[in-house]
Structures are given as C-alpha cells and as structure tokens.
Amino acid sequence: MLSAIGKQVHVIWTQIVTLALVFSHMFRKKDTVEYPDVMPYMFPRWRGRIILTRDPDGEERCVACNLCAVACPVDCIALQKTEDENGRWYPEFFRINFSRCIMCGFCEEACPTHAIQLTPDFEMAEYVRQDMVWEKEHMLINGTGKYHDYNFYKVAGKSIGGKGKGEARNELPPVDRRSLLP
Amino acid sequence: MAKINVDGKVFEVDPNNNLLQEILSQQVDLPYFCWHPAMGSVGSCRQCAIIEYANDEDQRGRQVMACMTVPREGARYSIEKAAGFRAQAIESIMINHPHDCPVCEEGGECHLQDMTVMSGHTYRRYDGMKKTHNNQYLGPFIGHEMNRCITCYRCVRYYNDYAGGTDFGPQASHDNTYFGRFQEGPLESEFSGNLAEVCPTGVFTDKVFSKHYSRKWDLQTSPSVCAACGVGCNINPGERYGTLRRVVNRFNDEVNGYFICDKGRFGTGYVNSSERITVCMSRDTHDGRPVQIEADTARAQLKAMAGSAIGIGSPRASLEANFALRELVGADNFHAGVSDAEFGLLNQVLDIYSNRPVNIANIRDIENSDCIVILGEDVTNTAARLALALRQSVRNLGKEMAAKLKFPNWQDAAIRQLAMDRKSPLYIVSPHSTRLDDVAKTVHIASAADAARIGFAIANALDNSAPAVSDLSVDEKTLVDQIVADLKAARQPLVVSGTSLLEPALLNAAANIATALANGESRCNLALAVPEANSLGLMMLMQGSGNTLGKALGSGSKQAIVLENDLYRRAPARAVDSFLGGLDKLAVLDTLQNRTGEAANLVLPAGTFAESSGTFVNYEGRAQYFYSTFPAKAPILSSAKWLTEGKKTEEILAEVAASLPGGAILNKLTPGADFNFAGMRAPRQHHRYSGRTAMRANISVHEPKQEQDEDGIMNYSMEGVPPLKDATVFSSPWAPGWNSNQSLFKFETKVGGPLKQASHGVRLLDNSGAANTWYDATVTKASGDGFSVFPVYHLFGSEELTSRSPAIGEKATAAYVALNPADADKLGLAASDGVQVQHNGAVPVLLRNSIQPGTVGIPVGLDGLNFQDMTANVSLEKARDWQSPKGWRAANIIVSDRSMKKGEAN
Fold first, then answer.
1. Contact across the interface for A100 and B101, Cβ inside 8 Å
2. Span B484-503, pLDDT tens digits
3. Which residues of A touch B100 (CB under 8 A)?
4. Which chain B residues are Cβ-neighbours of A170 within 8 angstroms?
5. What global pTM score does this model have?
6. Which domains are seen in chain A, by residue range?
7. Distance between CA B355 and CA B376 in Å, rounded?
C-alpha cells in the first residue's frame, strides 16, 4: 500500500522535473541558428562543393590524368586530356554532374596533384537539375586551395614550358648519350 | 611433359619451354619484364627470380631466373621464397623512374606499375638525385619519354632483332643507357607502332592516341578486324566520347600474333574525319543542288531503284554488305567493284587455293618456313604483316643449328650469336628493290613477266612434268638452279606472290612451284597477297559470274547503286566519267566523300568498320567477324543495314552461309545473336569505365537508356560477363593485377596458344582433294613504244581510306615516276626535274639504279597520278617550268629503298 503511494509521488515528481527542464531552456543559449541570416561555422575539411585549384605559379593544377573520374563511385566526373605546345597536360573540358555527386571526397583522395579539392560550401541547391552540371570554368579558382606549396610539375620528370629535362627537384642534368665515360 | 612442383602445387609442363613461360601458362603470377612470348628470353631484368631446390631434402635451394631455366622433371621450385629479391630488384629499377604516372600515356595499362605492385615495392626509400635523359622526335607515330626507361632492352630486341630496323639502338653505357635513334628523326620501320605495346613502361607511346588521349579503362572496345589490307589482322579499336581513339593489336595466333603494322595501327583517323558523310543527301540531276533528306525517304528512294539498277560491290565493304546489294539488285546485275585486271587475278587466286594441292600459309606457317621464294610481290607495302613474319622465317636456319647443339629455341641471344649472318634462304624476284632485301639471299630484279618465267622454270626443274620455258638467260638459269637446290633441301618451303603487279602468269608460276613441291600429304606453303580487306570475299560472292566493273561501265544502264567504292580508283577516269554521265540516277553508300560520290543523286552515310559489324575474308580465304566498336551516329548505318532495311548482321551472315557453296561453316563464326551466358551478354566497356553520368550531362542531365546492339552478343555498356569469365568474345585484355596488355596470357590456352574466348575465324576454301595439275607457262610480254609500266605500292598512301588519316598523310609522299638514271639521261632529266606523264599531270622524278632500264614505276593511289589511267606503256617527257611540290624530298620515300643507303643516285 505504502509502496503504491510512493510510486505515484515519484511519477508526479519526475513530471515536475521534466517540465522544469523544458522551461529552463527558455533561458539558455539557442542551439538553432537563423540560417541563412546567420551562417553556420563550417570546418575546413568539410566535404562540400568541389573546386579545381591552381599551383603556386598560377597554372592549372589538373593534368587530366582521369584518376578522379575512375575513383568516383557514381561516375559523375568526365574530362578530356589535351596538351599545350610544350607538352603540359591539362583538361580540355572538366565536367561534374553535381546532381549525382555524393560528396564522398574520393576524387580528392585520388588526385595526384592536389588539383581537385572539396570545400566547406554546401549551398548548391538549384531549381533546375540541369544547372547542377558544372564545367571547368565554374570550378577553377585562382588559388591553391587547402594545399599551398605542392607543384606537381616541379617534381615530375616530364619537361614542360619553362622547365626542361633535369630541372625538376632531385634531378641530374640529362646524360650525354654519345659518351661512354663512367 | 615434365612434372614440377611450384610452392607445393604440382604442374605438368613442357620441358621445351622456359620455366617462366610454363609457369605463366599455368596462370600463376610471376613478375617479368624482358621476356616476351614472341622474342624469347635474355635474362636481363632479374624480375622472374625463383628458388630451385636440388632435391626433396634441400631446404636452402638456389636462386635462378625462371626465364633462363629449363623445367626439370620432378624438380621443386618456390616463387614465394624469392619475393624479397624481386622486391629489391624492382626497387633499384625504380630509382631513376620519374614521378610522372599521371601525365604518362601508359598509366593504367603499365606493366611496370603492375610488376611494382606485384613485387611489393610500395614505398620509395631512395631520395637521391635521379638520372634524366633528353627525348627525341621519332616521327608522327611514336612519342618518346626516355626518363621512364628501365633498360629491359625489349625495344631493341623488337625493333632491331625482330623487325629488322637499322636506325635505332642502345647508346651510352652503364646506367646512362639510352634507347633511341642514332639521329633524331622518324622511325623507319613500318612496324614501329608495336614499340608502344612492347615497351613495358611509357618510353614509347602512341603519339596519335596521345593527341586525344583516354585511359584504357575509359575506352569502349570490341574485337575487330583491320580493314586496311588483305591480311586481316585482328585489332581492338577503342572509342571514347563518340570518336575512335586508337587501335591496338588483338592476339590471333594464326593471323597476326602479337604484332600489327603501322598502317593498321595509325591509319584509322579517317573514322573521325571531317570528310565523313554524315547525312542523307539527294538531288534530281548530277549537277543539281543536293538537299538533306530523312533516312526513311532515302531508304525508300534506294528501294525504288531495286530491279532497274545495277549494283557495284566493293572489296572494302563487308561480306554482308556486298551480299545485301547482290540480293537487292539481283545476281545478274551485281558487278565486282574491282579493276578488270584485278578481277581476273582474284578469280585466279580462288582457283589456285581451291584446286591446287597447296597449303594456304597462315602466319605461323610463314614463320616456320625455311626456304622462301617471293615472286614479284613487295610484301612490306602490300601485306605488311606477312613481311614481319618473313623476317622471322629466315631465322629458322639458326634455330636448326641451335637444335643440333641442344640449345632450347627460346635462348634468343644465344641463337643469334650462333647464327650470326647465316639465314635460311629467301629469294626475291621483283621489278624493284624491296624492304626485305636485307634478309634475302639473292635479289633478282626482273619485270613481272620475267619473274613469272623464272617461276615456271623453277617448277619445271622441280618436276619435269610441269610446263617448261625456253630462252632463259644465263643469269636466270643460275638463279633457277640455286633456288631449286635450296627448295629441294628445305623442310618447309614457302612461295609468296600476289596480285599487286597485275600479272596473271606470276600467280600461275607461284602455283606451279607449290604444286611441284607437293609430295603426297606434305604440301608446300603458298601465300598470295590480295589487295583489300574483303577482296576474296567479294569474289566468292561473284560465284564465277563474269560481271566485271568494265561490263558495268559499258552496260548503258540508267541507274546504279555503288557500294563503298570510288570508281575512279578502279577504272580509267574517262570510262567512269562517261558511265556516270549516262546515268539517270546514281546512289552511293560510302563513309568518306570522294569523286564518285560527287556525281551521286542519292548519298547514304555508311558506317566504317568501327561502327558496323560484319565479315571480311582475308588473303587465305579466312572469314573473320568484326564487332562494331561504338554505335553509329544516326543517320549513319552500316551499308548492310541500308540495303536490307535493318536486318540483323547475323541474319544476313546466315543467308550468305546458305548461298555460298561450302559456306555453312560461316555459321560457326559467331556464337549467334541470341547467345548469352547466364542471361547476360558481353560488355564492350571495362568494369572501371568512368564518367557515365557526366559525359553527356552537358546535353541533358537526364541519362538515356544504354544504346542497344541488335548485332552480335555484345553490349554498348559495362553490363555483362567480362572475358576473364566466359564471354565467348574477347574485347580487351585485363586480369586482376595485370592491367597492361601483358595480361594476355590469362586468356590464352597456353602462352602463345589460341585464345580461350575468341574465334580464329573460319577458312572457307577447301583444297583437300586437289590433284597435281599445271598452269600453262605462257607469259604475254607487253609490247609497244614507250616505257613499260609497273605499279609501286606504298604502305602509307596507296590504300584509299587510311591515306586520309592525318598521321598516315604525314608519312605519305606525293606521286612520282621512278626511273633508271640511264633512261633519265636519255630524256634529259636530272634528279630535281619533273616529268610529264601522258594524259596525266607532271610529277617529280625519282631515280633508282635498281629499276630496269625501259621500265617505270608508277605509284598506286598517291595524290597526283591515277594509276588506272596508265596503259601498259607510257610516254614520258620532261616537264616545263617545273617546280617540286612542297615538302618533296626523294630521300623521304621509303618505297623499297634499302639501296639508297649504299650511296645510290639521289
């Protein structure tokens, strides 16, 4: 009998505590923000809108190697390699179908030149799906993005305009093929 | 067979092969670089290291190179135990390798990448300085990036030892070793393209492909057959974004093995040409204004012509397309679209192959021959792949010498050392010097008629029941005696000839020699080169009818349907002009715009070999089916579909099979359109094919249904059973861990053996019951004033379609007249002069000592001269106000020009 009364008292007490807790939130800091009037803080490594970056010399970093395209699980990247007159590879076109993209970041991981990077921008909604197809000119920025120093062609053995054979990092001058000297 | 134990597994292997090859034949992975199935072993890269144990008690064993080891009966080997050594070896190989896989054309199909991963070298420890090398310009076909070299020497062994190149080689020493030309410039060999496939890394790459590059996994490929000459090499074309990107070799042990020629590899640029016919056009009169019409209207117009029109077939159209035209216009109205001279010659080839006791030689037969007589055919320029095989045949003497000393035949370097300059005898009788002269025992310069007389004399000397020829000169008699002696001593003789010199007696002479050498069951090999991909197929469809092109031109018919043919390349321009002028209605189905098409009232866009399926019959009468690589862009359709209102290609093939005598075997050519494996067909795309949801998103973000293929058993998608399982068709080699073309061994029944998934094609000609009969030894000698003309062929430029590919165009030369310097003196011509050819324009003159006085070589198919306008004899005179064409340099002409190097005129 006594325990039944005790139980009822407990039920009423917990309800009062709950109500007090709810009402106490009226005086606490708000968790929601007034988006878009107030913008949330996005972490730098958030995987959002994809950009193409330039190397420290201001040239396109993308060498059109196709690794992002093949890594993409939804196959939403298509590009075509072309070459300038000095042998530097770059994409003739570079297209991402963001209506398919799942922001997994595999493309960024696959990229050997740090060209393709995901940014903390998530505001990509469109009324028309066709507008979610982005070309190179929409994605290429005038900067290095998250990785400031890397310059693929300074490391790679292929010569391009402004960098001949033997001028990359850790390279000896080209050998003389007519010499038999040790 | 020997029983060996590899890491606890017991295999039955062939002790005549090296251990590496046998281990690979068992589908076991073992890394290697320098070994190549076609080129044997040299043991230079140290990658295939393996531990060999002396006996069951031996725990330590000793390390050997598998490619240099003979499998020992009962021996125990371990691949795993040598893994550490292999990892070290590849680490040192990789020390100087540049950091450039992303910008390397080989990336993704690189044997070096595969072997590095397989050997377990994943992290670079060396951080010292790297060697670098300057690159060379190697011509329009091959790119050079010397930094990537791992000095496996495969390029030298292929280019110099296998393909007979002389302008290329290793230079410098120790770790400075350099592979390139001695002087920068285009590679001379006609087989240079194979360097891109032979090189295990990206030193030599396909330059034409690089201009519109795509990774291997992004290419849509299908099993196809080269349409550039009569050999019918098997190829894998690759497509991306609607254009044909490249062609690589597709292994077929009976037709082309591991290699193809540069014309086949680089000559397909016309598929993407801006001169392609892409819409249906119609006009009322020949000179009226053409208007674009709908495909249905065009089809109705074509159909309305049936019954009253004559049809002209084509040796470069598929068997199905020619058959469809024959059905449409009726056999009586169907004419062969080849020159009248060629018509007779091709019929003769069919007659020889069907009714003479000869063995029609495939590539393996050619490579195994040990005495070869080439009668009047410049094989390198008319059937290039055969020339590469002939280069291998002369090595058989060395192999026999080695066998006597109990050397295994894969000891490549040792056999070359042993043989030195000794070669199996190869005789060339030809009106001009040829590219095979350097391996020939004797080169005899003679006109086609004289070559035929020599041939008849050989046959008569071998078998005196064969018809004899009289009045041989002393030189000719000596030659005949020499050839006869070598032929009699040979284990497997081979006679090579062909239609190119347009001399019927030459074919008869070749047939007589082969017949004379037939001895009961053992028959002599005979290879007769034919001009085009489906020359023999077209002639089989003629079924003995006499409907030549000349008959068509003189028929006075008012309507004509011309299938994939430029008549101006087949008959004199005046005859074609008057024929076309007399027509009320001319319908043309073709791929590229040409002179015949300009006169057409109705033009239908036809698909190239890459956009249509069908069958070609090659020089040995072998029918081979090719699958379309990518869907044709509407309204382009394969000719066969235009002519049959969209019948499936395989249905037409079945009809051909029913209509040809002995054609039933054609039904075995394909698995049948209804074939499937577990409900699935075979994919044309790699399972890593990328960009499917983005490649056409710029047009519409809504993806359409995959294009369906009604023909054959392949999908235009990545859906289906890949060839590694059981696809019954072989699209492109790939196996887990093996991304490069070296993965081929996973698809072969054994290394170098037939493919598990692919058909060899079927041989349509059966001469099993043929008895010894002889052709008459009559040779008609051309008479008349002026110079007697012989045709000269160019690998790059003589063929109609390939010559319109940009890369081939860069290699091709302008037309010329080739003369003996003595004749030039008589005409008052100097090397820099031009010469006026009767009825034709003026062209530069080319002086060669190797050309007989009184004869002139006229190139076929080159811009500036029409060979069809030549008569048997031409008159020449010095051109007035002559200016050499731009870029003309006589030294550029590769036409059979070995002699140039010996300091000849020019």
1. no
2. 999 999 999 999 999 999 99
3. 156-158
4. 127-130
5. 0.92
6. 50-151 (3.30.70.3270)
7. 22
